[in-house]
Write a structure and sequence with these properties.
Helix content: over 70%
Distance between the termini: 140 Å
Radius of gyration: 41 Å
Strand order of the largest sheet: 1-2
Order of helices and strands: HHHHHHHHHEEHHHHHHHHEEHHHH
Strand content: under 5%
Shape: elongated
Structural class: mainly alpha
Length: 613
C-alpha cells in the first residue's frame, strides 16, 4: 500500500521546518537572537495545528485502511531518541527555544502514539483472522499536561472509534450525546481549520445518533442538556445523492420504499463484472422480504460467489475491502438461512444439517463467527421439538433434533462471546461506498457502519438466558421422553373418558326427556287425536336428536376453527326465534284483550235497544 498523503504531509513539513541542528543554525548573536527566537517559536506554533489537522483528516478519512503511515512511524522513532526530560536551566533565548521545541516533539510523539493506538484498535476489529481467546491493546497516557490540540485529536479518535462499536446500549448513546455537546461547545472557540475538523466529527456523531433513533419507539432521540430539550431524528434522505448510503439507508431498512424500476436496474447490473456490492445487498434484502423467492435468492448467492472470486483476483485489496468481502459472504448466506427457517417449506433435519454445515464452512473461511444464524437455528429447533413433544408418536426423530439443538446452542454461545469481543458489523461494505464527501476538509469521511444496524447486546443477553432455560428444559424432556409420552397417553385417555361420559350423559338425558315427554303427550292430551300426538312425538324426537348431535359436536376435537362460527350462527337463529316468539305472544295477548272488550260491550248495546222500544 502507498503512504497516506496526510502522514506524508506531516513528515515532509517536519523535515522541512526542523532539519537536524536547525536551532544552532539560527543567528544567536546579540543583534539577531530575538528575531531567531520569534522565527523559531512561530514555526513551532504553526506546526502543531498543522499536525492536528492532517492527523485528524487521516483518521476521519480512514486513510490508514487504504494506505500506511510508515513515514510517521519512522519519524516517531527518530524524534524519540532526541526527547529530553530536562533541558539546561538558564535564561538564554536559545534555551527557551529549545524548551518550546522539546514540548512540540512531545506533542508530536503523543499524537503519533495516539494515532497508532487508534489504528491498532481498528485493525483488531477488522482483522478478525487474529482469533485469539483474549487480546488487549493498551495505551499508556503521559503524565504531562496535554496540548489542547492533542486533547482535541484524542476526541477525534474517540468519535471515529465509536462507530466500530455501534450499539444500542444506553451508555453508548449517552456517551455519544456527551461527545456531541463537547464538540458543539468547542466548535465556537476555534479557528476555521479546526472548525472544519469539528464539523466533520459532528457529522459522524449525528449520523450514528440519527440511525439509532430509527430503532426507538418514537423514531427519535429526546434528551435534556443543561435543562434544554433536544431532539435527534434521521433527516429526510432525499436531500442526499442517490448513491449516498444515507439516501439508501431508510430504503434498505424498509424495502417497500424501493421502486420496481430501480430493482430491475440492479438486477441488470448484477451480471456485470464491476457490480457494486451494495446493490447485491439490496437485492438480497428485497428477495427475502418482498418477493420471498427461493429461486431468486439461490441465483443471487451464485452471483455473489462469482463476484467474490473476481475480487480475489482483482487489485482493489486493502484491509477494509478484504473485510467487506468476507462480511458480505456471511451476510448473503445468513440471509438465505433466515429465509429458509422463516418459511420452513420442505425443511427436514437432513436439509437443516446441510444448511448448518454450509454456514459453518463460510464462517471458517471468512473468520467471521456471527451469532445470528445459530440464534435463528436454535429458536427454530426449540419450536420444532416443542411440536414433536406434543405428538403421541413412538417412532419419531426427536432425539436427533435434540442432539442438533445442543450442538447449535454450544456454537451460539461461542459465537456470542466472539461477537462481544469483536463487535462485527452484520454487513460491512467497501471503502468507496462507505464514505461521505466533506468539501470543507477536501476529504471523504469514512463511515464503516453504512447500512449496519446497531448491536443490542443487552437484549441479546436476555435472549440468551431465556434460550438457556428453554434448551435445558427441552433436553430434560427429550431424555425422559418415555415418561413424557406416558403422561400424554394418560392425559388423552382421561380426556377421552370425560368426553365419552359426557356423550353418554347427554344420551341418557335425551332418552329420559323423550320418555317423560312421551308420557305427557299421551296422558295429558286426552282431547287430541292420535295423529297430532304422533306429530308431537316426532317433533320432540327431532329436538332431542339435534341436542345430542350438538353436544357431540361440542366435545369433539374436530372442526375447532369452525365451532365459534357455527355456535355464533346458532345463537343468532335462537335470538331471532326468541324474538318472533315474544312478538307472537304479544300479538296473541292484544287479540285476546280486544275480543274481551267486544264481548263486554255487546250486552250494553242490547239493553239500550230494548229501552228504546
Amino acid at each position: 500500500m502507498e503512504e497516506s498523503k496526510f502522514s506524508q504531509s506531516i513528515y515532509d513539513k517536519f523535515m522541512s521546518d526542523f532539519p537536524e541542528g536547525w536551532i544552532e543554525m539560527l543567528d544567536w548573536s546579540d543583534g539577531g537572537k530575538k528575531k531567531s527566537l520569534i522565527a523559531g517559536v512561530t514555526k513551532i506554533k504553526s506546526f502543531v495545528p498543522f499536525l492536528f489537522s492532517n492527523a485528524s483528516k487521516l483518521v476521519l478519512a480512514g486513510d490508514f485502511l487504504v494506505g500506511n503511515i510508515k513515514k510517521l512511524t519512522d519519524l516517531d522513532s527518530m524524534i524519540e531518541k532526541g526527547l529530553q526530560d530536562t533541558v539546561p536551566d538558564d535564561k538564554r533565548l536559545q534555551t527557551k527555544l529549545m524548551i518550546a521545541y522539546s514540548d512540540m516533539l512531545y506533542n508530536l510523539h503523543d499524537a503519533i502514539k495516539l494515532l497508532r493506538y487508534h489504528i491498532s484498535l481498528v485493525q483488531d476489529r477488522l482483522d478478525v483472522q487474529k482469533n485469539h481467546p483474549f487480546s488487549a491493546i493498551l495505551y499508556g497516557e503521559t503524565d504531562r499536561s496535554k496540548n489542547e490540540y492533542i486533547e482535541l485529536f484524542e476526541l477525534v479518535c474517540e468519535v471515529c472509534f465509536m462507530e466500530y462499536i455501534f450499539s444500542y446500549d444506553e451508555k453508548y448513546i449517552q456517551k455519544l450525546l456527551i461527545i456531541r455537546e463537547i464538540l458543539d461547545k468547542r466548535n465556537k472557540e476555534k479557528s476555521v481549520d479546526v472548525k472544519a475538523i469539528i464539523e466533520a466529527c459532528l457529522t459522524k456523531v449525528e449520523l450514528l445518533l440519527s440511525k439509532l433513533s430509527i430503532f426507538s419507539k418514537q423514531k427519535q432521540i429526546n434528551y435534556n442538556y443543561n435543562f434544554e430539550t433536544k431532539i435527534i431524528s434521521l433527516s429526510e434522505p432525499d436531500k442526499y445523492q442517490p448513491d449516498d448510503f444515507r439516501h439508501l439507508f431508510l430504503k434498505y431498512m424498509d424495502p417497500d420504499r424501493l421502486d420496481y424500476a430501480q430493482v430491475l436496474e440492479w438486477q441488470k447490473n448484477s451480471h456485470n463484472k464491476d457490480v457494486a456490492m451494495w446493490q447485491l445487498a439490496f437485492l438480497m434484502r428485497y428477495y427475502t422480504k418482498i418477493t420471498k423467492s427461493q429461486e431468486q435468492i439461490d441465483s443471487l448467492i451464485s452471483l455473489g460467489e462469482k463476484h467474490h472470486k473476481e475480487y480475489i483476483k482483482g487489485e482493489e485489496h486493502n484491509l477494509i475491502n478484504d473485510c467487506a468481502d468476507r462480511s458480505f459472504r456471511n451476510y448473503m448466506y445468513n440471509s438465505r438461512l433466515s429465509f429458509i427457517l422463516d418459511n420452513r417449506k420442505g425443511l427436514n433435519i437432513q436439509k437443516l444439517e446441510k444448511e448448518i454445515a454450509k454456514i459453518e464452512s463460510v464462517q471458517n473461511e471468512t473468520f467471521i463467527f456471527n451469532y445470528h444464524p445459530f440464534q435463528k437455528i436454535v429458536e427454530y429447533l426449540c419450536a420444532k421439538i416443542d411440536d414433536l413433544l406434543k405428538e403421541d408418536r413412538i417412532e419419531c426423530d426427536i432425539e436427533a433434533y435434540n442432539t442438533l439443538l445442543q450442538k447449535c446452542y454450544c456454537k451460539l454461545k461461542e459465537n456470542y462471546e466472539w461477537c462481544k469481543h469483536h463487535h462485527p458489523y452484520l454487513m460491512q461494505l467497501r471503502y468507496n461506498f462507505s464514505t461521505i464527501k466533506d468539501e470543507a476538509n477536501d476529504i471523504k469521511i469514512f463511515c464503516p457502519s453504512s447500512f449496519c444496524r446497531p448491536l443490542r447486546f443487552k437484549v441479546l443477553k436476555e435472549k440468551m438466558e431465556q434460550l438457556n432455560i428453554k434448551v435445558s428444559m427441552l433436553d430434560y424432556q427429550v431424555r425422559h421422553i418415555d415418561e413424557h409420552r406416558d403422561l400424554i397417553r394418560a392425559k388423552n385417555k382421561i380426556e377421552s373418558m370425560e368426553r365419552k361420559n359426557l356423550e353418554q350423559m347427554g344420551l341418557y338425558a335425551s332418552v329420559t326427556t323423550f320418555l317423560v315427554g312421551l308420557l305427557s303427550i299421551f296422558i295429558g292430551n286426552t282431547n287430541t287425536s292420535i295423529t297430532d300426538k304422533m306429530g308431537y312425538v316426532i317433533a320432540l324426537g327431532l329436538i332431542l336428536l339435534s341436542f345430542v348431535c350438538l353436544g357431540y359436536f361440542l366435545v369433539t376435537e374436530r372442526f375447532t376453527k369452525a365451532k365459534p362460527w357455527i355456535f355464533g350462527l346458532l345463537g343468532i337463529i335462537f335470538l331471532i326465534t326468541l324474538g318472533e316468539f315474544v312478538f307472537s305472544l304479544k300479538n296473541d295477548s292484544t287479540d285476546k284483550k280486544e275480543n274481551t272488550i267486544k264481548e263486554q260491550s255487546a250486552p250494553k248495546e242490547v239493553k239500550e235497544i230494548s229501552k228504546t222500544r
